[in-house]
Amino acid sequence: VREMKEVLDTFHLRTPPFFPEIGPDGEPVDKNLVARALNPALDARLLHYYFDLYDWSESPMIGGISQVKAFDRFPEDIDLNQDGTMLVLLSGTSQTGRDSLANLILFAIEKKLDKKPFMVLAELDDLSREQNIKDLARLFISSLEESPSFSQEYIRSLEAIYESEIKEVSVGSQTLFPVLFKRLSSKVKSRLKMPIVFMVKGERQTFDFWRCLYNSTRSLADFIIVQTSQVADASTCRARLSNEGKNVAHIHAPLLDIYMAEQYIRARLAAERPTGVTIPPTDGLIPFSRAALDVLYEPGADSNGRTPKWSIGWLRRTLLRAMEDHFDELTEVMVKNNVTTLSALPPASLLIGRERVLKTRRSLNLNRGAR
Amino acid sequence: MSRQKNPFKLEAVSTFGSSLVTCESLGYMGRARDELDEYLSTYAVASRRYGGAFGVRGAHGSGKTHLLSWLAERARTLRHIKPNVIYAKADSPRLFDLLRQICGQIERTFLISLLDEAALNTARVEARVARATESLEERLVTPQDAQIIYGEGNLDREHIENLFAEQLRAIQVPSRLVTALLSVPDSRYGDIAYRWLDR
User: Residue A88 forms beta bridges with which residues?
Assistant: First the structure.
């Protein structure tokens, strides 16, 4: 512990920047909360760890990460058209910050309405659009069983509504069982007194389905958040609903190119410098050398002209592990050279270099020595 | 100007799969056989494997279908390699119909293994894009290895699946067919997707 503190002090860091143990207020942070997707509802200090990598160009109403109020822009009731329901499409693959963004939206809803949202998490993977909509209604009803406001008898009355309404022929492929959701809404909303959020995942769905989902359920849901890796479909869905005057946003969580990666590393390191320490911009990557970053974006021997891009999760894990490996190495060098302080070592050897990062990556690639 | 009368029978002279009495000494048959033999002999070594194609041209009744039947029969009798012979007739302007004819002749289990192999190849290609991930390739031997690597977070399953789907769309496979095809391995809905392809 003493050695780690000395290494961190040498690099003007108060805590490991890619796995912080000390929060911005100087108090410890629960490791479990920083090891997975950020969720500020569990600890508001996690707002400080968001990095604004997101593409907000198709999201005029929600945008800009704020470490104080979650977002610089978040819709007020007056901003919303028609019945007020908003569809937020979050696109991106795993580890890109998509889940963290979904949690941030839930946090912002809670802050805005001063009420915890009632969230229904639904993985809708059926090939039938109709079945997916029915599944969502059933999931909603079964989720209410957890709420003390709803007796078993009341739940049964909702199930009866479900059974009677699914027999009705749907009005079209763009709206399915709208009466079911209207009836559920009139029975539930006055009792629940919480904003209703549908958090929907499903990799086989397309823009047509999400449009149908919005049209079908908007009488019940206040927010519908869709998480998908299908960027083009999300973009098309936003354009179509937007043309119809619906409340819709599409936010993309992209893979990071070298420019964005550098911004991320600089921001994270700067956030963990002790108060009063000023680092010149030229040293903003310390303890990483420029070559350590460059090698992560070096094309492979068989890249066919493609430039690598990485998810923020992949990058964070690589940088964290490279720092740990480097610090272990420095400790060994100190012992070997029989010196007691890092300042006794040549300054160039203190920085994390190209070879160190490549070795770390190779070790991670071979799943060796997982920490 | 008077329209020329078709000199050939309207019905197909030969139907694919019927028993054959043939003459292997014809030069064009030998050339087709040699193509098939070369394709199958290189197939055994993954690094030499290639996607082959050859065209057969001839007037109605000249023996095109007969040649295909003969090649198929020959392929089925080989001892060292067991090729899957699939016959599809391109008599519709829609590529979709052709693809469904092909999918309909592949067992679901085999289709899943083909999809797994293709996704594995996409993962290998993706690993080679960056110096930082090149060493993953040596671990990408079977489709199961890819699943382990996705679990470690060293490659992203969704990203690879998207790339694979993009590759399919790039060769003009209709979007609905891509969705159904990629759903075939799914334990919940794969059977429905397969039946849709097979109907």
Answer: A225, A249
Whose CA is closest to B110, among B74, B85, B93, B131? Answer: B85
Residue whose entry in the numeric block shows the structure tokens 């290189």: B42
Q: Which residue, A173, A177, A91, A108, is CA-closest to A140?
A: A177
Provide φ and ψ at A249, rounded to 5°. Answer: -140, 145
Joined tokens for residue B56: 């057969």
List A70's β-bridge partners, or say none. Answer: A66
Per residue in B112-121, pLDDT (tens digit) is 999 999 999 9
Q: Is B86 helix (H, G, I), strand (E, B) or coil?
A: coil
The H or E element containing residue A247 is strand A247-252
B104 vs B97, B99, B165, B197, CA distance in Å? Answer: 10, 8, 20, 6
List chain B residues with CB under 8 Å of A365: 133, 135-136, 139, 154
The alpha-carbon gap from B176 to the nearest alpha carbon of chain A, in Å, equals: 10
How is residue A70 annotated by DSSP?
A: E
**Chain B residues touching chain A at CB-CB below 8 Å:** 125, 127-136, 139, 148, 152-154, 156-159, 161-162, 175, 179-180, 182-183, 186, 188-189, 192-193, 196
Distance CA A75, CA A109 (A): 9
Packing angle, helices A129-144 and A152-165, rounded to 10: 170
CA distance A217 to chain B (A): 24
CA distance B126 to chain A (A): 8
Q: Which of A86, A45, A52 is nearest to A66 (CA)?
A: A52
Which residues of chain B lie closer than 8 angstroms to A135, CB-CB? Answer: none
Q: What is the pTM of this model?
A: 0.86
- Look up residue A333 and give its two tokens: 């060098």
Strand order in the sheet with A118-123: A55-58, A247-252, A86-91, A223-228, A196-201, A118-123
The answer to whether the Cβ–Cβ distance between B135 and A299 falls below 8 Å is no
pLDDT in tens, chain A (371 residues): 556 788 888 899 999 999 999 999 999 999 999 999 999 999 999 999 999 999 999 999 999 999 999 999 999 877 887 778 999 999 999 999 999 999 999 999 999 999 999 999 999 877 788 889 999 999 999 999 988 889 999 999 999 999 999 987 666 678 899 999 999 999 999 899 899 999 999 877 889 999 999 999 999 999 999 999 999 999 999 999 999 999 999 999 999 999 999 999 999 999 999 988 888 888 899 999 999 999 999 999 888 889 999 999 999 999 999 999 998 888 888 888 888 888 888 878 889 999 999 999 999 999 876 55
**Residue with tokens 């590759």, as numbered in its chain:** B167
- For residue B67, which of B14, B107, B142 has the smallest C-alpha distance? B14
Name the amino acid, one letter, at A155.
I
On whether ipTM exceeds 0.95, the answer is: no
Residue A300 in 3-state DSSP?
coil
